[in-house]
Design brief:
The structure is a single chain. This protein folds into two domains: 41-70 and 328-460, Lyase, Ornithine Decarboxylase, Chain A, domain 1, CATH 2.40.37; 71-326, TIM Barrel (Alpha-Beta Barrel). It is built from twelve helices and 23 strands. It has helices at residues 55-62, 71-85, 101-109, 119-127, 144-153, 163-175, 215-225, 246-266, 292-310, 323-326, 360-364, 454-460; strands spanning 41-42, 48-50, 53-54, 66-70, 89-94, 113-116, 135-137, 157-160, 180-187, 191-193, 196-198, 209-210, 229-235, 272-274, 316-319, 330-341, 347-351, 371-372, 381-387, 396-404, 412-416, 437-441, 444-449. Strands 4, 16, 17, 18, 19, 20, 21, 22 and 23 form a nine-stranded mixed beta sheet that branches. It has an eight-stranded parallel beta barrel with strand order 5-6-7-8-9-13-14-15, surrounded by seven helices. The longest helix has 21 residues, at 246-266. It is globular and about 70 Å long. 47% of the residues are buried. Bound molecules: ligand LLP. Residues 94, 96-97, 115, 138, 237, 240, 276-279, 320-324, 360, 364, 420-421 line the site of ligand LLP. Ligand LLP is lined by residues 94, 96-97, 115, 138, 237, 240, 276-279, 320-324, 360, 364, 420-421.
């Protein structure tokens, strides 16, 4: 692990090329608590520690790249969501953000429910002992085999996503002699991502059944007419990484309006609504997410108000946060390899992972932060692009950020807020070995998902 000197890249605003970045933080060694998990701090030597363990020790024991998940932070966030919504609501953790058997056990212990969207997620949930009645099963194209398993297991709800699925689930339930509890996923004509909020045109997508043109009302009619189904409510999910509550307001209003129409037409007051997930987290210091209690209050106020004006009994609310629970609780630890300063542009810092462990930058132009974590440095800030080791120029982990100009091969850097949609979307591109997820808590670290090995690759390749 040499720490050789190398020519530093461009450093200051007068030579900064185009890109999306704020000015470098006054102190590059400072850790913004918005983006790091709760037990992260620097020790007396300047090394970052999580759960009381320094990153050098973690790197030595578990290797890099690796995801380190702050278990007590994860559990605290689960409790914060459960407490914020209280006993009159249900919090379903969205397993697609990241799921493993340890996660399922923690959710169970902290009183959360679980949203799964594939047979694989369902198996993981059941295997780790999540009671079936606390599981919601989602997906726009659940296979017959998946529906069979969900019905047999007795999942608490299946979220119906199409007219065909209404019939499919009803038949399967009838064949099993049960009335399956279901919700209908409706598209409310709102799609919200981060700061933008667009209130039209989003029926043009594969999920759900449109409220527009009476489609959702027709779906309700059919679901109510089928013996195999127990329609308990309506579901809406409007997008990802949302900070503005306006989209949820419109969604809640439209869903409550549908409940009122159902009451008027069928004389039935559906007891539940699910407002989905999508709550934003801080990936960089520029992001200002809301606290669970603010979100809970905003949502329940809207629903209560709308129900009062429609003279409806207030339904039980559920929400499905994934990213907002697991996202902030993990960081990815990388070792710095090749450093390539490009005069007048930026310095490319290559790490030992890349788009195989974090596809979000390449896929969504997502923004991340990065810090030198094996030590502190008083060197000047240097504009960097953190890139992976894959054969692809789009293999970018952090597009624009500042690291100290004395960064050297062998240093450890970490990208915070990678708990959601990084390991769960990881790939084997270039036969990369997917990194482990290591849970850290109170001075102890343990692997909850092990690193893939070359034997794993060869085992799948049957020759
Ligand atoms: N409920 C439903 C029905 C969903 O479709 C989703 C996410 C969630 C809940 C959880 O959303 P969250 O609270 O985690 O934002 N791969 C993308 C995100 C895709 C989200 C898909 N659905 C990303 O990396 O940003």
């Amino acid at each position: 692990m040499s720490r050789s000197a190398h020519p530093a890249g461009p450093r200051h605003a007068d030579v900064l090329p185009e890109g999306h970045y704020s000015a470098p933080a006054a102190d590059l060694n400072a850790l913004d608590e918005k983006v790091w998990s709760r037990t992260v701090t620097r020790d007396a030597d300047g090394a970052l520690t999580v759960g009381g363990i320094a990153v050098a020790r973690l790197a030595e024991e578990f290797g890099t790249p690796a995801y380190f998940l702050d278990e007590s932070d994860f559990r605290a966030r689960c409790r914060a969501w459960a407490d914020a919504f209280g006993p009159a609501a249900d919090v379903f953790y969205a397993g697609k953000a990241f799921l493993s058997r340890a996660i399922v056990r923690w959710l169970k212990e902290e009183g959360l429910n679980l949203d799964v969207c594939s047979g694989g997620e369902l198996t993981t949930a059941l295997d780790a002992g999540m009671p079936a009645e606390r599981i919601a099963f989602h997906g726009n194209n659940k296979t017959v085999a998946e529906i069979e398993r969900a019905v047999e297991a007795g999942v608490g709800r299946i979220v119906l996503d199409s007219f065909q699925e209404i019939v499919r689930v009803a038949h399967i339930a009838q064949r099993h002699g049960v009335r399956q509890r279901v919700q209908i996923r409706v598209t409310v004509g709102v799609e919200a991502h981060t700061h933008e909020f667009i209130a039209t045109a989003h029926e043009d997508q594969k999920f759900g059944i449109a409220l527009a043109d009476g489609q959702a009302a027709e779906a309700v009619r059919r679901a109510l007419s089928l013996d195999g189904l127990d329609l308990i409510g309506v579901h809406s999910h409007i997008g990802s990484q949302i900070f503005d509550m306006a989209g949820f307001e419109v969604s809640a209003r439209r869903v409550v309006q549908l409940l009122a129409e159902i009451r008027d037409e069928h004389g039935v007051e559906l007891p539940e609504i699910d407002l989905g997930g999508g709550l934003g987290i801080a990936y960089t210091s520029d992001d200002d997410p809301r606290e669970p209690h603010e979100i809970a209050k905003a949502l329940s106020d809207i629903v209560t108000r709308e129900c009062e004006s429609a003279k409806l009994r207030t339904p039980r609310i559920s929400v499905e946060p994934g990213r907002a629970i697991v996202g902030p609780t993990a960081f990815t630890l990388y070792e710095v390899g090749t450093i390539k300063p490009l005069e007048g542009l930026r310095t490319y810092v290559s790490v030992d992972g890349g788009m195989s462990d974090n596809i979000r930058t390449a896929l969504y132009d997502a923004e991340y932060s990065v810090a030198l974590v094996s030590r502190t440095s008083d060197a000047e800030p240097m504009l960097v692009r953190v890139v992976g080791k894959h054969c692809e120029s789009g293999d970018i982990v952090v597009k624009d950020a500042f690291l100290p100009a004395d960064l050297a091969p062998g240093d450890l850097i970490a990208v915070p807020a990678t708990g959601a949609y990084c390991r769960s979307m990881a790939s084997n591109y270039n036969h990369a070995l997917r990194p482990p997820v290591v849970a850290v808590r109170d001075g102890e670290a343990r692997v909850i998902v092990r690193r893939e090995t070359e034997e794993d690759l060869l085992r799948l390749d049957v020759g």
